[in-house]
Amino acid sequence: MPVFLIYSLYLLFRGHDKPGGGFIAALVLSIGVVFHMIVFGVLATQRMYKINTMILTSAGLLISVLSAILPMFFGDGFFHALWSDIYIKGIGTVSSVLLFDLGIYMAVVGAVLKIAFAIFEN
Amino acid sequence: MVLVLLLIFALSFLFLFFYKQAPRILNFLGGLSILGVFIYFSTHIQAIINGHKIIEEVPWIPSLLISFRFYLDGLSLFFALLISFFGFFIFLYSIRYMRGKPKANRFFFYLTIFFTSMLGLVLSDHLILLYVFWEVTSVSSYLLIGYNNKKKKAREAALKALLLTNLGGLILFAGLLLLGQQYGTFYLSIILQINQAVVGTTAAAFLILTGCFTKSAQFPFHFWLPSAMEAPSPVSAYLHSATMVKAGIFLIMRLNPLFGDNSLWQMSLLFIGVISMLLGVLKATTVYDLKEILAYITISTLGLLIAALSVGNHLAMQGAVIYLLAHALYKASLFLIAGNLDKQIATRDLRNLSGLFQYMPLTGLTALGACMALAGLPPFLGFGAKELLYEALSGDNWQLRLMLIALVFTNAIYVALALKFSLGVFFGSSSLKNEVKEVSLIMWFPAIVLAMMGGVLGVGGIYLEAFITTISEVIMPGSGLVKVDLSLWHGFNISFILSIITWLSGVILYFLLNTLQGLAQPNSFSFHLGYQCVLQITQRLAFAATRFLQPGFLTWYLKVIFGVLIILLAWTYAEGGLFSAIDFPIRADLFPDIYVFFPLLLVFSGTISILTTSSRLRILVCLSLVGYGIALFYAINNAPDVSMTQFLVETITLVIFTVVLNRMPKSATFPMEARKILIATIAVAFGIIMILILFSLQDYEAAPLLKDFYLQHSVPEGHGENVVNVMLVDFRAFDTLGEMIVLSMTAFGVAVLIKLKSKEDIF
Known about the structure:
The complex is a heterodimer of chains A (122) and B (763). Chain A is mainly alpha-helical. Chain A is built from 5 helices and 2 strands; from the N terminus they run ααααββα. A two-stranded antiparallel sheet of chain A has the order 1-2. In chain A, a hairpin with a 3-residue loop joins strand 1 (83-88) and strand 2 (92-95). The longest helix of chain A is centred in the last third of the chain and has 26 residues, at 96-121. Chain A is globular and about 50 Å long. Chain A starts with a helix and ends with a helix. With 763 residues, chain B is an all-alpha fold. Helix content of chain B is 73%, strand content 2%. Chain B has 31 helices and 2 strands. Chain B has helices at residues 2-18, 23-42, 45-49, 74-97, 104-123, 127-145, 152-183, 188-194, 201-215, 224-227, 233-242, 247-259, 263-284, 290-309, 314-345, 361-374, 381-393, 398-426, 441-459, 465-475, 494-516, 527-549, 554-576, 578-581, 597-612, 616-636, 640-663, 673-698, 702-718, 723-731, 733-759, and strands at 54-61, 66-72. Chain B has a two-stranded antiparallel sheet with strand order 1-2. In chain B, helix 12 runs parallel beside helix 14 (290-309) and helix 18 (398-426) packs across helix 21. The longest helix of chain B is centred in the N-terminal third of the chain and has 32 residues, at 152-183. At the A-B interface, helix 2, helix 4 and helix 5 of A face helix 27, helix 30 and helix 31 of B.
């Protein structure tokens, strides 16, 4: 599992320049969790990772919308990309676009896992 | 103005989130801000009387020319003052009325949202903005009526109000759009400046009028108002007597300069107004619930105001404005009294209430004052307003005669009802066994202030004269400022004689009503019944249609979807003559390498195994094989992102499907021969169509242009080298957001459906 998590984060952050991105990263992580579920059972997975899919999805959506609204406070239009000068090694330049990608990541993980949990619980 | 609205809007969210934690602070803050709004608008009175007009504008959707543009003139200022003045006292009252209720935070949230939108409605200068605020008031009214959401009656009443006012709202919207189109601008102030008949506005006028009638509870839409009495009393006082139901009247007044001369407009105002006026007052004599009586009186008074607006002279306009103010004052305080009684005695049935004066002297005093205003006795404002209207109607044609008779009759019944409400409830022998206490200060204070304001303004009417004159000039411009005479004593003239007739017949009617009580039955033909019929038919139809279109079989859905697609695509091709345009080019560059054949082999073998096997698991695995083959194909053709996504989606689908497969019923029937042929036909036809599309897309010129655009702009503007990702999160970010929302909704829906299904079989 840690491998899946780290690899998915890696994909998330490098996504802007090389193959990867929020959606792909989210799928990688989801596959990891789903495998865990198959091996140990749903309850064990839920107990171990304590993921609240509802909150995760909503938070993801909220972050994405925020990243879209944020530029409006700086006088730009809805979804105008903002880029800062901060460059973090391994993550890349901090920007509203990265925030948006993070939102996608969280929302997709939440949505996929919500369905998976529901199916496996049944 | 914009700032004021924004502040109040922000305040409403404070109420929603923090009211439970800090009610005292928020009570204080809320009261202060609403009072502040009132004071803010009061400071403009002098400027407006002097003839100034204030416009404030903040852009909203510049590309559609929609902006937050607000317009303050006599009429909107009058309504803004009315809304904030009543808002303050209703707020004070609600603090105590709502204390300790579990959902008080929501109540105050809805109330402040309503306050904001109602202010916005009267102030907005843009027709679309006005419509938006109009609908927000409907929605907040819905939420407030249904505040007791555990009570079935309250929910039904709320839905009824929402459906009717929204129906009207949509009709109004059509009317406003038409009006804007005809005048070429959506700015009210500009339309009013043009102020001349434009061809084709009669239709707009009628649509708008219908909207106004639903909002102001006029015949034949009136029946939502009595049901809306399920709302807490302060809400009835504020929304359903003082402000929201006046929105229709506001709009009619606002548009009077445009349509006032139209005889059809005048006729419909007159007839609908008079019918509602009489209907309301007659129904009021047949019910026993205090609040319901008040609701019917409100319908009747609103009808009276609308009828008065049809007259088309200054006297009538001024009378209508003053009557509106007087009505708001006494009716709101009567509603608050009903709330007090409900709170202390837990009944609003007229038959169980009598002799309460000794227990609740202050409430009784208030009731006396408010009822005097209702009966139109001096020195209350209701008296002056009624006199003005009588005077305005003493003309010499049949419309005025008809209205005058109806008005005298209506007012006589008002007198009788006022007697019933004051004498009947507060005097006579008490039938109560237990001691009843007077309500606390914060509950009797607003009621008594509102009731006494009617008297104060009645005596000091001369101070209102300048303002009322300004308002009537807005409603009916062009003939110079006609001064209104608001002194209490007009002399012994025809109006005064009519007033005396009204009072005397009112008293006689009161005694008649008392003896006739019980005989008056609610008539059998009910609008409510008609409404329920329509509602049920709609529901049945919807259910049948859903059953037909959505039988619940996945195979059926797929057949319909693909079938429709095939038909539409084939049609498009046939019409555009595209069949002939395709020259089936076998281009060498389509097969660049020999590796392409490996994924193709995968896809083909997968497809063939699917067709020849009957095991579900094998079908599933083979489907994934096809998917992986396609993913490989992407990878070879320089699309790593798409390929990765395809791989991952295939994997997760396979895993989840395997689990689901386990749980599917074993006995699910496999298609019979006839169905197999149908499915095969659909599949082959769809495949052919898709191939055709692909061939024609090759010659499509826009694609390379688009590709080049993204390739060139990705690094400088999107700051990323991965074009696919830059497209997703930057250039087409709004689409992505939409997809995310859809995905999340689907996830929640699927999860809920699965959980429901596991709990019990819902169908």
